[in-house]
Structures are given as C-alpha cells and as structure tokens.
Amino acid sequence: MGSVATTSDGGRTWRYVRTGPHGQLLNGVSFIDSHTGWAVGEQMHADMAPSYKTALVLHTGDGGATWAPQSLGDQWDDADLMLLDVVFTDARKGWAVGALNDDPKADPLAGHGVAFRTTDGGATWVEGTTGQLPGSWLVTVAFEDEQHGWAGGDGALLYTSDAGKAWTKQAAGDLEVWAIACRGGTVAAAGLAPDQAGQKVPALWRYAAP
Q1: Spatial separation of the C-alpha atoms in residues 177 and 171, rounded to whole Å
Q2: What is the pTM of this model?
Q3: Are 180 and 189 in contact (CB under 8 A)?
Q4: Is 36 inside any structural domain?
Q5: Residue 188 lies in a domain
Q6: What's the pLDDT at 110?
Q7: For residues 176 and 22, which has the higher predicted lDDT (pLDDT)?
Q8: Which of 25, 46, 82, 138 has the fewest CB atoms inside 10 Å of its own CB, making it the most exposed?
C-alpha cells in the first residue's frame, strides 16, 4: 500500500505518516537529514496487463509528513518498470536502481537492471548505462561519495567511478547481491553465491580501496 512509518524514539514505537493507494509498493528510502528524503517503488496496474507496473518516486522535505511524486521523465511514464532502491549523497545528487521489462506480455521476472541518476534533487533523472544485463535485476545501490558507487542484484555487481553515468561489472553470473554498504574506502556486499556443489549459500564480498 505504499505506506511510510516514522519513529522519534530510536525505533521503540512507530507511527504511519502515509498510506498509499491500492497496488502501490515502496521498496527503498534514503534521507540526507531529518527533513529531506526520497522513496522509490512501483505502482501495479492489473487492468493493463498481468504484473504490469510503473515506477514510483516520492520526495519529502518535512521529515515524511507529506510526500510529493517525482517523475523519471515522460519516456518512462508508461514503461513496465519498478524501482527497488535509492540513495542520495546530498540534497541534489542521487541514484535509483530497479528492473525494466521490455515486453509486458513476457515473463514478469524477465527484463534487465536499470540505473538512474539525478543532480537536481529528483526534478529530472537520467538513465545510467548498465550494459542491460539480461535477466538481471538491480535491487541495491550505495555510494561512497558523489563519484564512486556500487549496485547489485540478481546476477551482477556493478561499479561506477563517474557518478553513475556508466557502470562496469565487478562480478556477474549465478550470484545474487541484496545489500551493499560502503564507508571509508571499504565496501561490503551481501547475498548468495553457488558453493562447490552448485547450491546457493550466503556470501559476502569485500573490497578495500588501495
């Protein structure tokens, strides 16, 4: 339902400040301070096609009390696209990742990972080049600073050194990257990878800048 809850006591209690319409899902959120934040997700459209969805971006400037929609751009308004994570490094620079299905009549789990970047607080977004890895969703994104970032998902771990204009593969194949964290030049990614028997088991990747 696209709901948002806030806490002011370290998580002991929560209260809902937003409940979205039916079929709306929020998958990622990022705040740069106690007032300014963004949330991303998807709006399902069962009347258009099974599992059809369009991207959702919301922005708040009052700590989550109210949220206003933002657009990725007219060309994406009707695309079968979901956003799964978002991160901002300041009030203007941010990135969102997700999955685009080029054929809504095909398998809803098909498609490829996509990445978007903004330099004006989400007023406009530009797609980042990911190589359009087939069958690879991007579900998590993290940035060390405004230039260096990582994105991961089903089948790929990507890296950018130019603020998300282009992304290169650091790992790919039968792996799943579900979370990334970076601090002080050290990056950790967690997910699943096949063991010697070919069974997927919990995995942790770590990178330390020289």
Answers
A1: 10
A2: 0.89
A3: yes
A4: yes
A5: no
A6: 63
A7: 176
A8: 46
